[in-house]
Amino acid sequence: MSVVMLSGPIGAGKTTVAQELKAISPGPLCYLEGDTFWPVFVKPDAAQRRERFRLLMRSITAASIPLARGGYEVLLDFSFPLDFLDTARKILKEVPLDFVVLRPSLEICEARSGARPEGTIADYSMYRDFYAMFEGAPRHEICDDAADARSLARRIREGIDGGLFRVG
Predict the structure, then answer these.
(1) Which of 165, 164, 159, 123 is nearest to 24 (CA)?
(2) Domains contained in the chain, number
(3) pLDDT computed for residue 44 by the predictor
(4) Pairwise CA distance, residues 47 & 43, whole Å
(5) Which residue, 13, 43, 103, 108, has fewest beta-carbon neighbours within 10 Å?
(6) What is the dihedral sign for C-alpha 106, 107, 110, 111?
């Protein structure tokens, strides 16, 4: 089948929208939520968090291959920045890839990050540069502060089915 990367900055609503996408999936589906993988680093070495982040992105992407080849659409819910797409394409080889970026306004992301079940972020200022890493791919972006998760999921599903988010 294929891999769908549902991406965006912290507070974009990825996991909430992913729950709605799971509900309307037309076929066999596997779901991997990237934030649940952070605890695998029980005793992180001295490497910077950025390097662990890149290692985690590569690992999650690679883990999706046998699932997709086994006939599942694989929904990856994680903050994959645009500069990871070339790496993802190389890892996945022939497995089709759709890339969707949820990118509400910075203000919305900041407000949501204060109420995250994964851990609240009291000061979003250190993530402003991270937010900018998701700009620059208008074909893959959904920037809508007013839409609810269900309507966003429907738009994404229609886009996936129509090939709008496919990465060559």
Answers:
(1) 159
(2) 1
(3) 74
(4) 11
(5) 43
(6) negative
**How far is 34 from 26, CA to CA, in rounded Å?**
22
Q: What is the pLDDT of residue 58?
A: 97
Query: What pLDDT is recorded for position 87?
Result: 98
Q: What is the pLDDT of residue 119?
A: 66
**Quick one: pLDDT at residue 39?**
83
Question: What is the value of pTM for the model shown?
Answer: 0.92
DSSP 61-76: HHHHHHHHHTT-EEEE
Residue 108 and residue 75: Cα distance in Å, rounded? Answer: 24
Rounded Cα distance between 168 and 136, Å, is 17
- What amino acid occupies position 81? P
Residue the block writes with tokens 């294929």: 2
Residues in the chain where the model's pLDDT stays below 50: none
Note whether 134 and 106 are within 8 A (CB). no
Helix (H) / strand (E) element for 90: namely helix 85-92
The amino acid at residue 58 is R
Q: How far apart are CA 156 and CA 167, in angstroms?
A: 15
The CATH number of residue 80's host domain is: 3.40.50.300
